[in-house]
Every structure is written in C-alpha cells, then in structure tokens.
C-alpha cells in the first residue's frame, strides 16, 4: 500500500502493549482480522519507561495473558515471586511470539474519526485505513504530570519525572526531594535510600497495603476471598475505586511492606505533607503529613481486617499477627523548607500521568476528558477501550484482568460485526 492509498480492515487496535496484543489474539481466535499500530516498539512501557531495579508489585501468578498464564503455558517456576523488568519483558515477548498479531511498530495514529454511514477513518504516519471497529489500547500514561509551579523552581535544581528515571546515577550529588507516594514514588525513594543518599519525601494521600499477613501474601488472601472478582458495577464506592491511587507496597527482596514511618526512623528519610508550591529554592507543603500517614495506615488495617474476617468465616487455622503499632508520629508539620539550606539538589516527580485522547473525534468523553464505557464498549458503535483501570474489575489494566477483559471485548466486537455464532464457538 502506498502512502496515499486507503486500505480497509475490520478492526484497528491502537497500542501495542499487553492489552492491545491480547485483544488482537482473542480476535484472531474468532477469525476476525485486525491490525495493531504502536507508536514505539511493542511493550514500549516495559522496555523504556521502567527503572533498572523495577519489579512487579503483585505476584507472578497474577500474570495471566490469554492462553499464556505465567505458571501454566509460559512455564514460570516462581509463581509467588515478583518478576524483574527483564523477566517481565521476556514473558510478554514470548506471548507476542505465540499470538503473532499483525503489528506495525513505530507508527503513530494521528486521527480516528467516524465515517458517514458507520465505521472509522484512521490516519497514521504510514497512511490511511478505514475500519469497522477501533480499539483504543494506549493506556492512561501518555503525559507525565508536573505541577505548573515546577517552572518556578530555581534552574540550578535538577528535575526529572519518574518516566525518565532509570537509576540514582542520573542525579547530581546531594539530597533529593521525591514528590509522590504511589507505587512508583515509594520504590524510587527506596532506590535513593539504598544508594546512601539524603532523601526527602513529599507524602501524598496514597493508601498502603500489607504484604505478608497471617502466613501468606495479602494478595493471596484477597484472591481467595473473591476481592479481585468484584466488578465496578458491584463496588460499594465506585467513584473511590476509580479515583484512588494504588496501594503501595513492594515486590523487592521477595516482597515487603513499605511503612514510611519506619523509613524515617531506620533510614532518616525526611517526611513532609503534600507539595503545595515552589518559588526559587523555597518549597511549601500542606500541613497534612499526619493525616496522610494515618489514612495510609487506616487502609492497611482495613485490608488486615478484611483478611481476618475471611479467615474466621472459613474456619482457617492461620498464625496470628501482633497488633499494629505506629513506630513514629510527627511532632510538627513542617510547611516550608529552603532546598539550598537543606542540601537538596534534585527533585524527582512521581505524581502520575494523564491520558491524551485529543486525536479521537468521537463524543465518548466526560467533562474531565475520561472515556465513558461499559466494560470498554462506548455508546459510539465500534469504538472501545481496553487496558484501563477498573474497566470491569480491580485487575483491569493489570496482568490479572487482561485475559477476561480481552475475551469479553473480542466477543462484543464479534457480535457487532455479526460474526456467525458457530465461528465464535469453534474459535
């Protein structure tokens, strides 16, 4: 096909990560042709957007790509372990080799627009396509978030977003202020602690989770209790589920809890409340450190209570745990510091990302720019999303839920394309 020709294909999938390739695989099993466009290389976020010491936070057994479970088809031998970055890449690459999608790498999709009479026009950097269905599998990590006042920081202070972080050696000598306490922020904080650096941490409202509790990983208990099977439609507080930051813990060293109070006591990490403003070398924080630490502990204890209730209900003989105790409590709320006086030469932003859907010309977004759908299927016929958090369950957007979500979406697409029922059953 030349640059000026238009080719038709039943389904275009935008995004060559695990969600996009899983959907392509499930469609292939139903006999439906698709093409996957990836602006970089396949699994780019695993290869290029993860730091050197990265490892999974959830156990390997939760890696369940369709027909390619870690401890089944892939033949992984450490289901309760936590794969390192290169091991994750080997796993997803092996899935791609098995799935054999029609994948076009280093192709940017610049426009998706509905066609009169149905279907879509898709414009890319290698030409134009028409299709009946479009699946958006780009995830929610397009644009790194940095607050506007980051531009007011003294230019002599080094700044980096977590998307560009690989290791501590990228940073100049001196102390570092890590902003954000989601899963990335606390793990990058530990990287600097291990390197013997002077670490300061702006603590946000992220919740935390136990790791091992009453003899097992907390995620094992939660799985057995049916927690991961709860759908967003069944959730008692769906708004909270959709907006809450992920619980922080770590898969490092075989898996462990992250207690910021203990990092302060044991490693001298200086803790502050949420970052509020910057001007030159002056940095201001909200007086919410105590609240944020207490809220994180409240979440931690809530998960323990949930596990306790399941153990009691099932009559399981499990070892008891000592009561939780706070090892440290702030005596004051420091709301302002001078970076130069504190010896801080760097700021590491770990406050997340926002998606960019500006290239999609369809009325499927709410006032905040988030897509509106039912299990990924939007009100605009033929336009779907996959790989986003709580598409259906907690596992959506993670390895755990991709198989279920991609199979469901493929079936929905097949129904819209009116694929014969026998063909669907035989696939």
From TrEMBL:
<dbReference type="InterPro" id="IPR036188">
    <property type="entry name" value="FAD/NAD-bd_sf"/>
</dbReference>
<dbReference type="Pfam" id="PF13738">
    <property type="entry name" value="Pyr_redox_3"/>
</dbReference>
<dbReference type="InterPro" id="IPR050982">
    <property type="entry name" value="Auxin_biosynth/cation_transpt"/>
</dbReference>
<dbReference type="GO" id="GO:0004497">
    <property type="term" value="F:monooxygenase activity"/>
</dbReference>
<protein>
    <submittedName>
        <fullName>MSMEG_0569 family flavin-dependent oxidoreductase</fullName>
    </submittedName>
</protein>
<dbReference type="InterPro" id="IPR024000">
    <property type="entry name" value="CHP04046_FMN-dependent"/>
</dbReference>
<dbReference type="GO" id="GO:0050660">
    <property type="term" value="F:flavin adenine dinucleotide binding"/>
</dbReference>
<keyword id="KW-0560">Oxidoreductase</keyword>
